[in-house]
């Protein structure tokens, strides 16, 4: 295993000088430099994997060089055959002070727990999950980019059925893995200096009620690959998916929208409403950045109002932040549209439409002029600035969200868990 390192003041080591972090795409970058955490069990996770009382266990020792240690799997691997893999996406970044922070990991853990239940996988304890993050960050500390917006060390905890199983049953063995990659923004290099050109997908479904749409599992993304490839061939950056059972040709305005391939969507309506599709249908992912934008918009509503008036040209607009069913028809009343995600942060949309000529769809097209250039319209830009100010520690929240937004992975294991849970140590 590789040695975890930190400076004496609990800050990460300097970033590698031979990597141009500013130009890294959203991808697996420099895998030859990574190490990853890998634990297995045949039942549940226990103190041999991690004992928080002694801060010891396999998670502290079992960190493997990424390129030199591929996974050893059999053809009958349960995840390969039946798709029993869940994962999370978190970001670690440097603060202006030089310290490191992981953004809101408790929200990821809670979603990870729900995914474990849905996929018949044993959930790790919060203590094990947090320690795996710390080990992954500290072992790869020189891959944390220098301070700068959009750059991050992306963290991907995974849990998969790794045992051999021919029948349709839960796996007899499970693997908990956390790997990393230094990256830029999700849409970096895809949009140049413009907002997103979005295709309204009317033929393919990414999720249905009662299915896996709210679970961050591999199949949730596999379903988007073909329609995404076809949308890109037609000149779009991404798809916006519908609840297909609510779409009828000729009545497109009544269809309920879901989300993008890997991002949630927000509308700024001319009535003053900032709205995003609700989670109640169980068909979209409860994004961490989505939740963060809702918190920011509600807490700093007064500060947002002048930008809302500028965006909507409605001096009497009352700012309302809501989660509800959002229809295609609502898009017609939007002055701004933007998407959110861990990798994307907040990115404006410049147009949404179908393609009758290339894709044979019902005709629909809307332009959002404020999204034509980055960082977008007045509300989109202000929310992005607010989010980044929170991420750098320059903006403080008073809303009690029940979690810590910037826990330091170089703190002690106990202190890190307290920070993750939004608690302060009692001296």
Radius of gyration: 22 Å
Structural class per helix/strand content? Answer: alpha+beta
Estimated share of beta-strand residues: 15-25%
Shape: globular
Distance from N terminus to C terminus (CA atoms, Å) equals 35 Å
Mean pLDDT: 94
- Order of helical and strand elements: EHEHEEEHHEEEHHEEEEHHEHEEHEHH
Low-confidence stretches: none
Number of helices: 12
> What oligomerization state is this entry in?
single chain
**Strand element count:** 16
Sheet having the most strands: 9 strands, mixed
* Helix content estimate: 10-25%
Which key features would you list for this structure?
seven-stranded antiparallel sheet, 427 residues, nine-stranded mixed sheet, 25% helix, alpha+beta, 12 helices, 22% strand
Helix and strand arrangement:
Layout: E1 35-41, H1 58-61, E2 63-65, H2 78-82, E3 85-87, E4 90-94, E5 100-102, H3 105-118, H4 126-139, E6 152-161, E7 174-183, E8 196-201, H5 218-222, H6 225-233, E9 238-242, E10 257-260, E11 264-269, E12 273-277, H7 288-299, H8 301-312, E13 320-324, H9 328-331, E14 334-341, E15 345-353, H10 356-359, E16 365-367, H11 378-391, H12 413-420
Helix pairs in contact: 4-12, 8-11
